[in-house]
Amino acid sequence: MRGAFPAFRAAPPLAPDELAGLACEPEVESRLVRSGSARTIGEPAFVVEHGPFDEQRFAALPERDWTLLVQDVDKQAPELADLLDPFRFVPDWRIDDLMVSYATDGGGVGPHLDQYDVFLVQGLGRRRWRIAAPQAGEAALVDGLELKVLARFEAADEWVLEPGDLLYLPPGVPHEGVALGDCMTFSVGFRAPSGRELHADLAELLYQGLPEAARFADPDLEAADPAMRGEIDPNALARVRAAVRAGFAATDAELDAWFARFVTEPKPQLRPEAPDQPLDPEALADEIRRGAALARDPRSRLAWVASPGGDLVLAADGEAHPLPAKLRPLAVLLCAERELPPDALRRYLDDPVARALLAALHAQGCLDLDPT
């Protein structure tokens, strides 16, 4: 899409020096990828360094063939969160983060593919993007690299993106971007958890819910045939299968609530900080009545899920908050808006459950209080 973000033609919303400054912060996830002339003789084709970086590291880099990538910039620089608004045609829980990269001439991370949707907005300079036909099955990777670089890449099409241009890449499409001079790219990634991630998290939840006293038992055990002492007999196998399946006997409502917690769980370094002095429900309600506003912490993730009976669960940063059906408008409001003026909240302050919810979210660090 040519000129999708016309304001970028004048200047990107983030300067290269500001991006480098973020990469020096300890709580920011960043990587430096060197290739070509930026590598030392004998090093692999692509060399990855992980932040945080010292300012002197950037001063020591050559003039070309390196890329700096910084994750979750929308949470570190909240003024950039508005860049995600054009992509909110999908539910918020599907949007992962805004990653920003700065590359010198020739810089790139090699041909690769992502298993999720990606929108790439050119913010500064020019970058050539090449794509290949979608991969069928497992893609072969170059051995010995930390990056997942495709061993085989035959370009089928290419475009040069100018400031403000946008490129959409569906999941599974091999692609490669190379900087044509110094450039910046703003990448909007979407969440697509793998089956392995889902099963691992659910298994951990089920494990925590199993009592220690629940053990294998066979009160009807019969004496073993001396010749068959090594056999795990069918009766024992049936008891084991029943015991294992019993641990996975979660209801649909329990699975729905678990998934809401799963997709709102933040990265450890991005978990909002709890206030030093959280307010109880009545004190917080009084502050709102006197004109205080609430604002969602830019690092916080919220989603809600309704049950067949009409009640719902609001998930905030991996924590579940059950709510009655009548508070559905409040859940919708909290998930949809980043700024919550007092006029939008006062109608809920007479409800003790709503007051308790707002206080709990404030105590989590999800909602910040603005006394003005």
Name some characteristics of this structure:
372 residues; alpha+beta; Jelly Rolls; Malonyl-Coenzyme A Acyl Carrier Protein, domain 2; eight-stranded antiparallel beta sheet; 25% helix; globular
Order of helices and strands: HEEHEHEEEEEHHHHEEEEHEHHE
Largest sheet, in brief, is: 8 strands, antiparallel
Taking pLDDT < 50 over at least 5 consecutive residues as the criterion, the unreliable ranges are: none
Shape: globular
Helical fraction: 25-40%
The DSSP helix count reads: 10
State the end-to-end CA separation.
42 Å
CATH class of the largest domain: Mainly Beta
Number of strands: 14
- Tell me which oligomeric state these chains represent: single chain
Written account of the structure:
This protein has helices at residues 16-23, 55-59, 73-76, 195-209, 234-247, 252-264, 281-289, 328-336, 342-345, 352-364, and strands at residues 30-35, 46-50, 66-70, 95-103, 118-131, 157-161, 166-169, 175-190, 293-296, 302-306, 312-316, 319-323, 339-340, 367-370. The longest helix has 15 residues, at 195-209. It starts with 15 loop residues before the first helix and ends with a strand. Strand 11 (312-316) and strand 12 form a beta hairpin. It folds into 3 domains: 6-190, Cupin (Jelly Rolls), CATH 2.60.120.650; 195-218 and 231-249, no CATH class; 268-370, 50S ribosomal protein L16 arginine hydroxylase, Chain A, Domain 2 (Malonyl-Coenzyme A Acyl Carrier Protein, domain 2). It is α+β, with helices and mostly antiparallel strands.
